[in-house]
Design brief:
Blueprint lengths: L10 H7 L10 H7 L2 E6 L6 E6 L2 E7 L4 H17 L6 E3 L1 H6 L6 H13 L2 H8 L6 H11 L3 H11 L4 E6 L4 E6 L18 H6 L9 E4 L13 E8 L5 E6 L4 H22 L1
Parallel strand pairs: 1-3
Antiparallel strand pairs: 2-3, 2-4, 5-6, 5-9, 7-8, 8-9
The protein binds zinc ion (ZN).
């Protein structure tokens, strides 16, 4: 990543400068003013938000018809452009930037990360997410506290939650992105598309609109060769734009323990081999 420009302040610093310690105090308009940007609301077509900067001031325009969590996230996202990419031409950001740009390294992803760190600050979020299971009921509860979208909140719960989980976003045609938490990183990778026995498959193919979380074979989701021996708790939601978000929770951790043991055995086999 480029070195930070001199006007850059990370979200944690901005919140600390304003003395913000609780979710209810994360006032996006006041924060924007503190960063020399004014937020205004008006009808927009073709994009959900835009920013126009001139010298050291900016105007952020947000679609007045978006729902409140999306408006706040748009504000945080445009502020991310303002802090990171000032001096470039104006940005216009479509709704899909907020749901689909999470894994590549580009200005949209960086702006989404900035918005997340501002609206769902790690330390504060961990306090509220403590011991919450990775399900959409937990996500909804946290999204109400932080006034944030389901997608942004679910990503946070996977990243900062204490239980082994993965969030996967599937569009109608392809997988868009996935976020594993620390327990799964470099151990398990999702298949390109969910298996036919998954809830997500049913949602993507119009076989129902909502399902309760249930245990499905891990082989429906991950490409580990022994996956058919294990279960994973799946909770999937169909979003309005045809996207399906899935939270996978290794409630039964046997698969992860077995993978750890296999890695350990491989490691000791390698060190025996080196000794000979
Ligand atoms: Zn953008």
């Amino acid at each position: 990543m480029n070195p930070s420009p001199e006007w850059y302040r990370p979200p944690a610093q901005i919140l600390a400068d304003l003395g913000i310690q609780e979710p209810a105090d994360i006032d996006i308009e006041a924060i924007a003013e503190d960063c020399a940007a004014t937020i205004r609301y008006q009808p927009l077509s073709g994009c959900a938000a835009r920013i126009m900067g001139y010298k050291d001031r900016a105007i952020i325009t947000i679609d007045k018809d978006c729902y409140r969590p999306r408006q706040r996230f748009s504000g945080g996202h445009e502020l991310g452009h303002w802090m990171r990419d000032r001096g470039q031409v104006a940005f216009q950001c479509a709704d899909k930037s907020f749901d689909q740009e999470w894994s590549a390294d580009n200005p949209e992803t960086r702006a989404n990360r900035f918005a997340s760190d501002l609206l769902l600050p790690g330390k504060m979020f961990r306090r509220y997410a403590h011991q919450k299971p990775p399900t959409f009921d937990s996500v909804q509860e946290l999204a109400e506290i932080f006034c944030t979208s389901l997608t942004a909140t679910a990503i946070r719960l996977v990243e900062y939650g204490e239980l082994p989980a993965m969030l996967i976003c599937n569009g109608p045609e392809k997988r868009e992105w996935y976020v594993p938490n620390g327990d799964l990183r470099n151990k398990l990778w999702p298949e390109l598309r969910p298996g036919t026995g998954s809830i997500a498959y049913s949602l993507l193919n119009g076989h129902g609109k909502s399902f309760s979380p249930r245990d499905v074979g891990a082989g429906e989701w991950v490409n580990d060769r022994n996956a058919h021996n294990y279960w994973v708790r799946e909770d999937s939601r169909l979003l309005s734009n045809g996207i399906v978000l899935t939270l996978l929770w290794w409630k039964d951790e046997t698969q992860l323990i077995d993978i750890d043991n296999a890695i350990e055995e491989q490691g000791s086999w390698r060190s025996d081999f080196r000794r000979e």
